[in-house]
């Protein structure tokens, strides 16, 4: 494989430690270059990537000439997954509603137990009128013909233009599709949600035979994120600034007790990519559509959490359209963006008392490499990040746009022998001077048991902390030192 000069702008970071991300140069199929490059058509794309519980990676995208779904699989080191058959790349065509040939672009992927659900945009004849297609694969990359009708689900009514905005598969295998619905090319745009049974059949118990269409907009709007609650209700995020967050009952009716008469609005145009719940709070993350900045919403079922950010919204001045974003189980938000010929991957904490995008809680990785673009990111079990997209001439001088993937690991710390979990604070309870068992550099914050921040300070090689001004009580001491996050309970006498 061709060797290419890499230009890296490695990780602008505002913590006291070294950069948080490093490119794993052992990843991929070009030894020592740190990337996976794949070429199979005239133009090739990865659009999304997911990881299984055992860290197998599955990528979806499409190849051109002809335009077909492309699914690829690797091990966590970027080498081909031997369980995915003789070739790690599989191509799939999907016929139109009358059996005609189509252009089909793979854009979404999700695990369904031991299956893969692939979501695609399908173009039948008129390039301005598109439909939605799903196929299901076995984990060896073969088509599961028991899914839908002869292995696929197709939603392409004549004269209807749809947009595939998001795909969500529940733990029980139910499938939700979010997007846009439009009659022809000149009518208004409407929100659309579909629910399918695990076997790819419209759920007749949801809305109108599995399809919910609501609201009407002069300009393009769509459902961009779906989160299914434990009680079966469905949280939706739309891209309009007024009709933005909704809560559906399991049958597709609206919960009128949610927010303000069934809707929450922020007056911020946003394309939200993920919604997750922590306790009674919800976080939704994505990109602003006008200022192209990363954004995090925090809200409850009654409205925006006004104690978070500005009126429940936190943003950063780091620009770039957020192609993908997710929140992990620890409340850490990850984004990938593209702007001006380079991509960015960055992270920030959303919970545990940290303020998103604030100094000490924001790590950034930038890469300008062969006009590469990352469209999807995911996380492995060791919290390393996999990004997938396209790059120029990766496989050879004239291959054009190639499928591209990288792996970002957590860097070697500037204090390599430092073990954050071993920090000891004493005396505890403390009267005035709290001591650490070693010198620390980074950020210290103290919160009351009600979650109110009562102390914040940057420290350099500090072994003590003066807490005499605090009232007696129980506090949470949050430390961010040498790239690690630590929380300790502290009792003030």
Automatic annotation (TrEMBL):
Q: Where is the signal peptide?
A: 1-18
Q: Which UniProt keywords apply?
A: Signal
Residue ranges of every copy of the Secretion system C-terminal sorting domain listed in the record: 425-491
The UniProt transmembrane annotation reads none
Q: Does the keyword Signal apply?
A: yes
> Is Nucleotide-binding given among the entry's keywords?
no
* Alphabetized InterPro entries for the sequence: Delta_60_rpt (IPR013431), Secre_tail (IPR026444)
The protein's matches in NCBIfam families, at most eight in alphabetical order, are given as:
delta_60_rpt (TIGR02608), Por_Secre_tail (TIGR04183)
This protein is called what?
A: Secretion system C-terminal sorting domain-containing protein
Organism lineage reads as: Bacteria, Pseudomonadati, Bacteroidota, Flavobacteriia, Flavobacteriales
